Amino acid sequence: xxxxxxxxxxxxxxxxxxxxxxxxxxxxxxxxxxxxxxxxxxxxxxxxxxxxxxxxxxxxxxxxxxxxxxxxxxxxxxxxxxxxxxxxxxxxxxxxxxxxxxxxxxxxxxxxxxxxxxxxxxxxxxxxxxxxxxxxxxxxxxxxxxxxxxxxxxxxxxxxxxxxxxxxxxxxxxxxxxxxxxxxxxxxxxxxxxxxxxxxxxxxxxxxxxxxxxxxxxxxxxxxxxxxxxxxxxxxxxxxxxxxxxxxxxxxxxxxxxxxxxxxxxxxxxxxxxxxxxxxxxxxxxxxxxxxxxxxxxxxxxxxxxxxxxxxxxxxxxxxxxxxxxxxxxxxxxxxxxxxxxxxxxxxxxxxxxxxxxxxxxxxxxxxxxxxxxxxxx
Length: 378
Hints:
By secondary structure, the chain is of the alpha/beta class. 32% of the residues lie in helices and 15% in strands. The chain starts with 5 loop residues before the first strand and ends in an 18-residue tail after the last helix.
């Protein structure tokens, strides 16, 4: 099966794959640009952009950006997006992932538009006010949801307040890396898995004029992609599989950590944002689980639910500090994120984005998947 093109608002790309946004510093210009150059959609993370261009921001003596304006730097985000577009060479599309929980959410959305983002993907909460911040710009708006109910609420709110609907929707199941839109215990229940949620969300999307549904959170192979598209999805979003690519913006220690992870090393823990967070067991996580509180005060004011460090103090770590430490290559102190299937990457090893996308589009065999494997339908 030749995969169809993906159309979202004014965007049309040859490959129906969106590379998921990963912060801090995992998907910036090099990864997003390489994915777009192949003909898919590359996504830049808007989280912690001050770490990418420290010369543009004010930092403390440990190198941490001070305050939201420096942590989520407008100048750094614009430079990242523009560099990604240059790498893409006019192919594919470049999007920006913006967490709803991010401090200065509206300002960061406007920054993305000004920098020329083709689309904004937004989750970790419901982006109820997102259309307000783009002021009619020709940018596609794509919320991330975990249920048909959430999609219905967004559609009703956007239509009433702003006279528009989402240009597509990402349905993310509980096997993704990073924050989950589910309670901890629900992440493991059959009824909350992606394939169980998909039919109801697809039906809800059709009710609102056939909004394109993008599936994410555990989608791994060409076989998965083909199955979902054959059953009504417009495309897929994938993040973890891009971690072990040469172009991924993560430091080498991050890639090595993912490639050496066993299935039991990938766990969920409580985050300052208030959602379960999927990470890899590393020295800091081991200390955290043993009861050590690693919070060192709020410097970045990165997410509003944290209440300027109050929630971080309770759970024992600042998410911005620990993701920033990982970006800086600090294995002992950093937090390293992976999806639930990340342990399968060791069968693949380090490859280029082009090689990976050749696997995901069925052009070449995928060493992480049995050749005769097929998706079990529900």
